[in-house]
Amino acid sequence: MKTSLRLISAAVLFSCSLLAQADIKLGDKLPVSPAVKVGKLPNGLTYYIQKNARPEKRLELRLVVKAGSILEDEDQRGLAHFTEHMAFNGSTNFKKNELISYLQSIGVRFGADLNAYTSFDETVYMLPIPTDKKENVETGFQVLEDWAHGVAFKDDAIESERGVVLEEERQGKGAMDRINKVLYPKLLNGSRYANRLPIGKVEVLRNFKPEAIRRFYRDWYRPDLMAVIAVGDIEPAEAEKLIQAHFGRLKNPAKPRARQYAKVPTYSKPEGVVITDPEAGGNAVMIRYPIFAKAEGQTYGDYRAKLIEGLYTGMLNQRIAELTQQANPPFLFGGAAMDQVVSGYHAFNTRAVLGKDGALPAITALLQEEQRARQFGFSAEELERGKKRILRGIERQYLEREKSESGAFVSEYTRNFLTQETMSGIEHEYNITNELVPKIALEEVNAAYRKAVPAQKNKLVVSPAPARRRRRCRRRPSCWPPPPLPRSRPWPRTRKSNWPAS
To answer: pTM here?
Structure first.
């Protein structure tokens, strides 16, 4: 309790000292929330620790590895995801099936609680542990250590799991899979990402030699590419001691392979893609503007730019929503967003769910609304409403801060490790948002919008459509929109398909 009070007091004093300054210096870096302890072991492993009492007697553990399908060699297509499977098939301290049996015995449900996912650039293992018994916590950290460097990769276990992963691939086939195979090379503009979807290639999954997956594990499961996150009902000093004991002895390879991120080129010309499929719902359209490289901002100026982005996106969304109130609306629902495409790349896009008149009026209305905002800008009245929406939103988060669950903090710290997203804490964000938003001028919001949504016509317009005289998808929402970032889905391990994510 004393530690919690000290952390709260430190947060309040820090925020108040900031507001006491005459002006926020936009070039200064945003601070790290005093509620989280961030550290790094000599071997390069990063850790995040926070005490949080919601839910009670529960500890959320994560092992985050900056290794996904983008790092696979040609003979390893699909083996990043396969490695995730093997983590549950025997390790240094847990024989096959022992891990699941033990965790179920202490109330951890396989699939609902215990799980993992693999994406292009990362693999994340999730383990919530009850803290009512000290030995449970110790075992939880042992499990994470085994995942980090103790997966067994026995030949018979690999052969057994081969059929499971192939069945996932088979069950994943359908309208969504066929659409994705056309769509992702377009969305990712022919980059390496387009050829490294996490599910991999059937011929590789069926025929790879066990040494290929062991090589992937040796190359990329190493401490300088890992983070351990512990948030929940635990004293930070105890958690730090356990992390040092379990992960301090991990070693990096003598000659580590360089961890590189693939580049994504921007669109060089306008393109329209109509994806036909017998089961496609054909009930939505997307307009994607040029992809551009954008690292997560670290300064107050970057945070202010993010607020401006939220203002013009919110105002455009309000205009799009008003179009659906017409007597004969061009679409049923629509929206705009600045999305992260893959790590380090963003793009502005608009989407709409089609009405009875189909794609043409929806595309026309979206382009006209985008052009109107670009040509004439937003009004002062719209900006004031937008500012009030942002301030109300941050106030609501601030007032509900004591209700924050450990899982929300874990997600934030995962993003910090993977993409360097800032983590100043809600108290600090509430104060600086209230300081910055009122001073944002209409001219700079309009200028930022014009930069994000350029006038040139190198856009990508995508619409799935049913093939003629063939049955339509019975469950339209499953056909569209496509997942923004393919990954193996955290899913109950009942040997059903867990890819692609929706």
So the answer is: 0.86
